Protein 1
Amino acid sequence: MGKLAQIINDMKIAGLNILGIAEMRWPTSGQLVSDDVTVLYSGGSKLERGVGLLLSKEATRSIVSWEPISERIIAMRLRTRHTCETIAQVHTSTETAPESDKDLFYNELSAVLDDIPSYDLRILMGYLNAQIGSDTTGVERIIGKEAVGDLRSTMPMSPTDVDTHRADKRRPNKVSGRRHKLAESLTNAI
């Protein structure tokens, strides 16, 4: 059984209608159907990174649109019973990645989130490359008690930093400003 077949089988056993994949490692972008599951994927020229969304037959009927943004971001809009929802599946750059890569990712993600209609339900999911420690002071609303390791994140600011920024009204430069805006919107969403 191939990897895709195994993931589809696990998805069906778990009863999932939508499953996000990080590190898909498929070239280019596209759509295919395998065993009644639609696979939307966004990759690059190399067999590295890549993200994807797997959808059941029922979820596939609800697709309004989808867009492969980059090898790290794919977005999809679905019609639900009462509204629409937009899902962004992401795979964040690591802490050791060059600043230019991180800035590019956060600028692309910020643009995707800005383009979502205000009346849509927004879902951001994926692998955010964060390692969370047991000290959750200031982020209790976001992180559970079961966290392990050291607090380290590719996010530009912690929620505490965002609150501090709101208090003193400093404006960061344009690139980190987009990263700040993203951190602030994620904090407000939780």
Protein 2
Amino acid sequence: MPSHFSAARGAYVMRPSARRTEGRHGVRARHDEHREPGEAPARAGPERLNVKVVAAISPQLFAARDAAYRNATVSDADRIDAMVITNGAYKLMRDWADDPIVHEYSLSSDWDDRWRTGGSIEEVMEEAHLDGAHIFEAIERFAASAREAAPASRTTGGRRRALGRPPRAGPLLA
């Protein structure tokens, strides 16, 4: 895992995808002090899931990086072929990925538009669906949808067809 100094870049790759083939896709994780949201996807087994995990810290710092770094970390195509895991509100991640399909596969503490009831950190994380079990289940669902969509398309066009929706006309530019 990269050094904490990588956060000064605004975004960095926590875990590269296992192989660059059909069905390559990314998971964007935003995390604060608690370890679960960022750490669980970073540990996802490369032999099982072909996911790239990117820590998305600050869109402003990321915009200050050169275009080559930005494209290597999160390309325009990655922004529409992704899921987001955040312990904040999903709308705060729209600078990174803002697409209805991305939202459908993403995890955020406001998934049900309700306040959390409280309790221990573990209880709150489970209620928010941000505990390890929910994270792994969501990543596996996302990876499985990419495998199903891969024969049709390497982009979310195939994922959109798998969900019974028309493909997007072009990439989302953030």
Protein 3
Amino acid sequence: MMKAVWLEEFGGPEVLVAADALDPVPGPGQALIEVAFANITFVETMFRASGFGPFETELPMIPGNGVGGVVASVGVEVDEQLIGKRVVASTGGSGGYAERAAVDAAGLVEVPEDLELEDAVALLADGRTAMMLVRKAGLREGERVLVEAAAGGVGTLLVQLARAAGASVVAAAGGACKVEVARGIGVEVAVDYREPGWAERVSEALGAVDVVFDGGGRRRRRIRFQAARPRWPNGPFRDGERRMGEDIGRGRRRARGGVDRPVAAGAGGDASFHRGRFCRGCGRPIAAGDRATVPPGSGG
């Protein structure tokens, strides 16, 4: 038996109860982790409070979607050399608030010796999202990048990753305190998107931007259209496309005809990026055939 934290009903933190649980056994393709740290995200607290979220489960359950610790054993078809390694991993939505957790071995991330395990766990959720977005965007040295919600968990990492890729970065955040957070991580220009004229400040600093990482959603979409200058796979930017920010609905209908359009992706808290493409089936913004999102509430 092991100790675990159980969720038996939805509500405040007091509904989490420590109790015994059966030891998990790693199945084929799995690894068993002796858990030292479990990360707690906003989405997990929202789920605990209301049952709303991306996790499909029945109560009672052991919550926890991410853990860090040492690999204790592995299932069949898994390299035994993983045993003893310090790792972080996702649990798939549950089971992390426990002394041991069985996880998909293919998703293990080994923690470097010079990084504290607790720091690695803290980076797990937002770091994975930020890395995915940067890789999908294919940032190039010298590109001009706008990061919205730049003081949030994903946003601060996007700023640093974009700068490390050699991009010029403008950070947009909501409120003076969050703007200072963005400045503190070395961004060239930081603007407050609650203030009028913030898009003009972006243009003054960079000109038209090449990539937008959007953690803000639809309320700022029209302004974002004015700042974006996507790379065009099928030819130059045409003057007629510049009017697209004036009528998003019309732009979507025309996009269904198969023409690449400049877009600023994201709606209602999505975190995404764009390089000027719409899905030709549904008209939703995508990038090189892909769209990535993270849950609302993590932005800055």
